[in-house]
Amino acid sequence: MPSIHALANPARFLKIARPLTPVLLLAGAALILLGSWAGLTLTPPDYLQGETVRIMYIHVPTAWLGMGGWSGIAISSIVFLVWRHPLAAIAARAIALPGAVFAALCLATGSIWGRPTWGTWWQWDGRLTSMLLLFFVYLGYMALARADADRGGDGRIPALYGVAGSVLLPIIRYSVVWWNTLHQGQSIGLTSSSIDASILWPLWLTLIGFTLFFAAIVLMRMRTMLALAKAEARMRRMAA
Amino acid sequence: MKPKHQRLTLALLAVAAVLGASGLALSALKDQAAFFYAPGDVAKAGPPVGRAVRLGGMVQQGSIAKQPDGVSIRFVVTDGTATVPVSFRGVTPDLFREGSGVVAEGMFNADRSFTASNLLAKHDERYMPPQVAKTEAGPMHETKTLAP
User: Fold this and answer.
1) Which of A47, A56, A181 lies closest to B140 in CB terms?
2) B126 to chain A nearest CA, in Å?
3) Residues whose CB is less than 8 angstroms from the CB of residue A142 and which lie 6 or more positions away in sequence, other chains included
4) A134, A178, A236, B58: which one has the fewest Cβ atoms less than 10 Å from its Cβ?
């Protein structure tokens, strides 16, 4: 039975990650293209917003991955702190850059969507502000992880930061419930959705597509980091 | 206790502390982080006169009245418990309409009316095609989730 320890072995991880990367990448790209095409041509416009609603098919997946990325960093950080698996630290560092990019895309697409619907590019509303903070927290994590690695640290300080940063996730999630905000409430719950089925279905395609794409990028970055570490170790052996 | 279990306990405590911290932050900021005042807040606590604030609610059905100068409007904002009359001079956003959500930026006057310098449209979390919206009962674009 493959336990968490088995997957933590870099050689075994590479054996799985190497063939998995192109599969995730191609499946993700196909679903993104299919979902975007369906969202641009097949679905009806919204009764209130008209065609503007179509930006949802990009905005919602980027928001989901901006937050999902930090959940990944937090979980990897806990696994690293408790079980000391180096692969978990590598996973957290690999997630940081795509997570920050998706958080930035979420802010950009939200701003583009807000101008025609709300009448403003940006407002200091609870949801918007907490998402901007998450983007800055990503940047801080990347700087800290790099500084820690440069100084030969063991990765514990960025891991602690990764756990502490997850304080923002429930704040972003519940900002629209707890506070008066310009941003509307949650549309998609676990069991129900207030988006009509005829508008909703391509969103699942892009949501899954972007998630697979994100996973492929993370695997690629993890493999690069493992390869760099290996090369560095070999150089050190040759120098000694 | 093995060191690993000790670390696991510490990590779980840290997660609990982080969740508690975000809960505290959410509730402590509840009033300060509100993006706008609702008419009900104003009725309870009195209007914050002479300060730039935002007023949010629904545009009452049938309340939008164009003024003779052609660029000013008056309308009434309601949250179901109280109402505030608003006057505004300028261009309204596309989604600004009766029965829909609005956030007005401006100032309260001493008589509890509101002079807006800018209007933002607020929509709710429901998305549907026009033909579905027509068959739904009640006002088509009522913002139901305004009050916390």
Assistant:
1) A47
2) 5
3) A96, A97, A100
4) A236
Give the angle subtended at the CA of A73 by the CAs of A70 and A79, to the nearest 5°.
Answer: 145
With an 8 Å Cβ cutoff, are A179 and B124 in contact? no
Instruction: Convert the pLDDT of each residue in A86-101 to its tens digit.
Output: 899 999 999 999 999 9
Interface test with A, best of B127, B132, B145, B146 (most A CBs within 10 A): B127
The residue of chain A nearest to residue B11, with distances taken between CA atoms, is A78
- The residue assigned the tokens 């959705």 is A193
Q: How confident is the model at residue A27 (pLDDT cuts 50, 70, 90)?
A: very high
DSSP letter at A45 equals P
Q: Where are the beta strands (DSSP E) in B14-82?
A: 53-59, 65-66, 72-78
Of A14, A148, A134, residue with least CA distance to A74: A134
User: What confidence score (pLDDT) does residue B31 get?
Assistant: 67
Contacts of A126 in chain B (CB under 8 A): 33, 35
Structure tokens at B53: 């604030």
For B116-127, give the secondary structure using H, E and C: EEEEEEECCCCE
- Enclosing H/E stretch for B106: strand B101-108
**Residue A46 gets which letter from DSSP?**
B
**Taking CB atoms and an 8 Å cutoff, what residues of chain A touch B34?**
179-180
Write the ipTM.
0.77
Cβ <8 Å between A49 and B123: yes
Per-domain residue ranges of chain A: 24-39+53-183+202-239
Radius of gyration of chain B measured on its C-alpha atoms:
21
Structure tokens at B38: 């609702």
CA–chain centroid gap for B94, Å, is: 18
Q: Is B127 annotated as a binding residue?
A: yes
Residue with tokens 């075994």: A12
Task: Outline where A42-151 has alpha helix (H).
Answer: 56-83, 86-117, 126-150
